[in-house]
Specification:
Elements (H helix, E strand, L loop, with lengths): L1 H11 L5 H11 L5 H9 L6 H25 L5 E9 L17 E9 L8 H15 L5 H28 L35 E4 L10 H14 L5 H10 L2 E5 L1 H13 L13 E5 L1 H16 L8 H8 L13 H26 L14 H15 L2 H9 L4 H25 L2 H6 L1 H10 L3 H17 L2 H10 L2 E2 L9 E2 H15 L9 H7 L3 H15 L3 H4 L7 H13 L20 H19 L29
Parallel strand pairs: 1-4, 4-5
Antiparallel strand pairs: 1-2, 2-3, 6-7
Helix pairs in contact: 2-22, 5-18, 6-13, 6-15, 7-9, 10-15, 12-15, 12-24, 14-15, 17-18, 17-25
Length: 637
């Protein structure tokens, strides 16, 4: 009925076309060809393909102008910019003239604007530069890291206790939703260290910039990408560039390679004549999605073991996930390994609970429902102290050797820390995330991940030596996590949102055809967030995704029960003197190794950042033409 009425109204008045506009955008960017759109237009269902193309150009210009106006109206607000490399597949449609398809290596970028972000004026820019110069003479050292780790561990252990308790509470046997003490504070998560606020006022707006045909490979490529992005934002005249260097701050949000390249460019330009050329206004901030992927690779490497052991390889064989034997960062490895990792740690913790319960003459997990919440919390703390703490590991090493129990204790300790960090990211507890930095530093140093050792040291140096308090708070509050749904448990790392932008470009809204080139992509990509919102609105109203979104999750109970049975029959959690692990199953304690290796890593890091920085501001020879001809779609019509 709605469609008939809208067609009748459109046939009488061509300006009564809002419904047709909506469907035109939806069908066009769901893969319908130009002739298909024109066929629907002749029926009065949509507007024509030509109208859509004109609307794309006009809307794209409007989006870019809106972003420039926002920046102009908020001169002291820092810019949050994330960018990542992208590879597109262009096709040849005229073999007689085009012998080779265009190079598909490029870079996409997104500006994240948060209405609640504070204004950091020119004084913060100047104080940051001065504090950087002072901080470079006083780099953070091993003693500082040791103090930070010791101060943070009691809080981290409290969150580990709750993770162990939560696995019991969420089990089918315990049936927490019917537990009469479920509102008690002892079975609730600990108070967050520093939680981010939620609500519509704290939701970031995403402005996707035109995709650039510049591969993000070398230092020069990254400098060209940064220069092009700043031109899109209106910083291209000599006056604007001087203002950028002296008054603004730009936070570049990317993976480890991106932030390392930006720091390298700052080091190479340290003797330039002004703050703009030296990139003093730039603050590179690595992102947590890629760190979690590196952490999972570290856990995979540490606890892989063999099929005769009690690590991940045994679990992969039981669950039929042989595709996870070799770790990687591409494809679905991250999500799949995360899923199996959760199953394995749940099996370990459930068996730990049964061992603790048997000491009280309790044989089943459901019988623990009879205990008061305070006693459950105390038992969870006993579980962590006995089966998941560094103190328990040291006791095992000082007594008669039991390699199996030592492996299990190390596994439980490291995986509980991982679960606590994941919960902090999901709930927006940036204070806990900061507390985990010294622990992650030790782990990456022991696991020989020199890249993230350097990144975490740079972050600790910023927090404790080089960043003013306003900058430190801004990094934690606006550069690590974002929440687009407004709920407490829907926070996500910002680089995940950047990766979703890459997905929209390559998968959700790919462009094909003879007119698909970098110029067209530069016009289309700024409105991809709008196209995504239109698609989501149409699919929600017409319920087109019900049959796909209502699927059931794969049952994990069988896998958990299988692995738990292996732990029980092998008495993994029992202490047996002089018990040996099968060959190939000894796990290295990355935390202990990190204590030994971190001192050398810190010395190498200190040596690499020991260089002189100019502090003069000579702008006379800097860019006199103010040419903005290569700026895409920012001119006034």
């Amino acid at each position: 009925m709605l469609l008939i009425i809208s067609i009748l109204m459109y046939s009488r008045n061509q300006f009564c076309n809002r419904f047709q506009r909506l469907l035109a955008f939806y069908f066009k960017y769901k893969g319908l060809s130009a002739r298909g759109c024109d066929a629907l237009h002749s029926l009065g269902v949509t507007l024509s393909s030509r109208w859509v193309n004109k609307a794309v150009v006009k809307t794209s210009k409007a989006v870019m102008q809106e972003l420039q106006i926002l920046i102009a109206l908020n001169p002291g607000q820092p810019l949050n910019i994330g960018y990542d490399n992208i590879k597109l597949a262009f096709q040849i449609f005229s073999p007689a003239f085009d012998k080779q398809a265009p190079d598909g290596h490029g870079t996409m970028a997104i500006v994240y604007y948060k209405p609640d972000a504070p204004i950091l004026g020119p004084s913060v820019n100047r104080r940051l530069q001065e504090q950087k110069r002072i901080g470079m003479q006083d780099p953070i050292g091993w003693d500082d890291v040791e103090v930070l780790a010791l101060e943070s561990f009691p809080t981290i252990e409290e969150f580990m206790v709750y993770e162990a308790l939560d696995i019991l509470l969420q089990s089918d046997e315990f049936s927490f939703h019917t537990y009469k003490y479920r509102k008690d504070k002892h079975v609730q998560p600990p108070e967050p260290v520093q939680a981010l606020p939620i609500g519509p006022d704290h939701t970031p707006r995403q402005y996707m910039l035109p995709t650039m045909p510049i591969p993000e490979q070398s230092y020069d490529d990254n400098l060209r990408v940064m220069e092009r992005i700043l031109k899109y934002l209106g910083f291209y005249s000599p006056e604007k560039l001087k203002e950028l260097g002296l008054e603004h701050l730009v936070f570049w949000l990317g993976d480890q390679l991106t932030t390392a390249r930006i720091r390298g460019a700052q080091r190479m330009r340290c003797q330039d004549f002004n703050s703009t050329d030296r990139l003093d206004f730039s603050i590179p901030v690595w992102q947590w999605l890629h760190l979690m992927m590196a952490l999972e690779k570290s856990l995979h490497k540490q606890f892989l073991g063999s099929e005769s052991g009690f690590g991940f390889l045994r679990a992969f064989s039981l669950l039929g996930r042989v595709d996870l034997i070799k770790s990687g960062t591409e494809g679905p490895f991250h999500e799949r390994f995360e899923h199996v990792l959760r199953q394995v740690i749940v099996a370990y913790i459930r068996e730990c609970w049964l061992v603790i319960a048997r000491e009280m003459n309790i044989d089943k997990l459901e019988d623990l429902r009879k205990l008061p919440p305070s006693q459950l919390r105390d038992l969870a703390r006993k579980l962590v102290d006995t089966f998941g703490s560094s103190a328990a590991l040291y006791d095992l090493r000082n007594e008669q050797k039991d390699e199996v129990r030592e492996f299990a204790t190390m596994f439980v300790r490291d995986l509980l820390q991982y679960l606590a960090l994941k919960r902090a990211i999901k709930t927006g507890d940036v204070g806990f995330m900061r507390l985990m930095l010294p622990i992650l530093l030790l782990r990456f140093a022991g696991g020989q991940n020199s890249q993230y050792v350097g990144e975490i040291l740079e972050t600790l140096q910023g927090f404790h030596r080089e960043w003013p308090p306003e900058v430190s708070d801004y990094v934690m509050s606006h550069c690590w996590l974002a929440n687009t749904h407004g709920k407490r448990d829907t926070f996500t790392p910002i680089d995940r949102m950047t990766e979703q932008g890459v997905k929209h470009i390559k998968v959700t809204n790919p462009t094909k055809g003879p007119n698909s080139n970098w110029d067209y992509l530069g016009t289309l990509h700024p409105i991809l967030p709008i196209i995504h919102q239109v698609s989501a609105h149409v699919e929600h109203e017409f319920r087109t995704w019900v049959c796909y979104s209502a699927h059931t999750r794969r049952d994990d109970r069988t896998g958990i029960a299988l692995f738990q049975r292996i732990l029980r029959t092998s008495e993994v959690l029992m202490h047996r003197c002089n018990r040996k692990l099968p060959i190939g199953n000894i796990a290295v304690d990355f935390m202990d190794d990190g204590v030994e290796k971190l001192l050398g890593a810190i010395e190498r890091w200190q040596e690499a950042r020991d260089f002189e920085r100019r502090k003069d501001e000579e702008y006379e020879p800097y860019g006199s033409s103010g040419d903005s001809s290569d700026v895409h779609m920012v001119d006034n019509e």
